[in-house]
Amino acid sequence: MKYDVTVIGSGPGGYVAAIRCAQLGLKTAIIEKNATLGGTCLNVGCIPSKALLDSSEHYHNAHKTFKEHGIQLDNLKVDMNQMIDRKAKVVEENVKGIDFLMKKNKIDVLAGYGSFINANTIQVTATDGSTSEVQTDKTIIATGSVPNIPEAFNFDGKRIISSTEALEIREVPKRMIVVGGGVIGMELGSVFGRLGTEIEVVEYMERIIPTMDKDCSKQLQRSLKGLGFKFHLKHLVKSVKNTGKSVVVEVQKRDSDEVFEIKADYCLVSIGRKAFTDKLGLEQIGVTTDERGRIDVDAHLQTNVPGVFAIGDVVKGAMLAHKAEEEGVFVAEFIAGQKPHINYDLIPGVVYTWPEVAAVGHTEEALKKAGIPYKAGKFPFKALGRARASMDTDGMVKVLAHKETDEILGVHMVGARTADMIAEAVAVMEFRGSAEDVARICHAHPTYTEAFKEAALDATGKRALHM
Hints:
Elements: E1 2-8, H1 12-23, E2 28-32, H2 39-44, H3 46-64, H4 80-104, E3 108-111, E4 113-118, E5 121-125, E6 131-141, E7 145-147, E8 160-161, H5 163-166, E9 175-179, H6 183-195, E10 198-203, H7 214-226, E11 230-233, E12 235-242, E13 247-253, E14 259-264, E15 266-269, E16 273-275, H8 282-285, E17 308-310, H9 321-335, E18 349-351, E19 356-361, H10 364-370, E20 374-380, H11 385-390, E21 396-402, E22 408-415, H12 418-430, H13 435-439, H14 450-460
Parallel strand pairs: 1-2, 1-6, 2-3, 6-17, 8-15, 9-10, 9-15, 10-11
Antiparallel strand pairs: 4-5, 5-6, 7-16, 12-13, 13-14, 18-19, 19-22, 20-21, 21-22
Helix pairs in contact: 1-9, 3-4, 3-6
């Protein structure tokens, strides 16, 4: 077959790129090595983890807060089999949705590993070993990432696990060690922490979610401590051993000889992900990669080989599904002769714990380092009527605005529904709005979004109305 565009990988970046290419009139194919479409996000990442986060939060509320709401329950218990089965059904429904979109947009789906023979010829190797060839004018590499697990961790997928295996645990472990205080570790740790598992976090840096604003880190850590989390910050893992029915992790305090052991039922290794480029045959066509194995691209996301593009987790930047989607649309439109644009400074980041953490733009630390004059405004959720009504008073909103122009430079939120609230901040910042702009916009009462308005009021120098 001959295609205008062939996409390798069907995650959010890949399937969105394919859809946009098809919408623009390009004959398009998508190659996927797995049995289902959707990549990591839909199958073993974003979607299943959020399904379990919601299920575990329902249980946690029933266990901890329903009584205060006037709801009495007897014999409350966790049915992990049902919880995992529901998660699987959610994944199945989403995957079917992608199948439908491929058919609707007349995109050919080719099953197997895609590898380059030359810049315009791709070999597809099916699971049974059979091969076929595809001719293509343009190619978009969207093969995503995989968990980064060093050999020293003795990963076995049984007691020493990654996020993939954590999504299939059909029991409530008594204890779990989470290595890595980033987004994945905190989200999956929350799933089991809400169900009653004792969670111990080992993090090399001095705080959790270290890439986000320091105030967000402090607030989330405080909330997770309330859930029973124990943190070993500024510590590193020396060794991990599966002893059969448990796991032993040897931990060393950073900048010290102090070493101790932690025992648990499972050790979840969540220290990041790495670009997945296996079997692509990049060397066949001379595509270059950086020291971390990520594919080198230019401002148009084109590799050093003309006509070959790369998006999502295989290139530099935040490993986020929505970033990959934006890049997929960008490349499709560029190939079609349009002039698309992505503002990488305004791609929001979210941690789906409870309270949620959401942010966009510069952190306070980054502004200080860059010497940019700024002013900060804050508003706590405990002063918010809607948060009191729902008993979700953990959290705050921080608005950072330029000291001279009042343009909003960063927004950082911790609290209920901040994953949805952050979109308002992104929209305002895309149009280079000011703190006063937000402060003068009428927000419905009572809502969580009022916290954004109040923080913006505080940033303008005017006192927040409800604090």
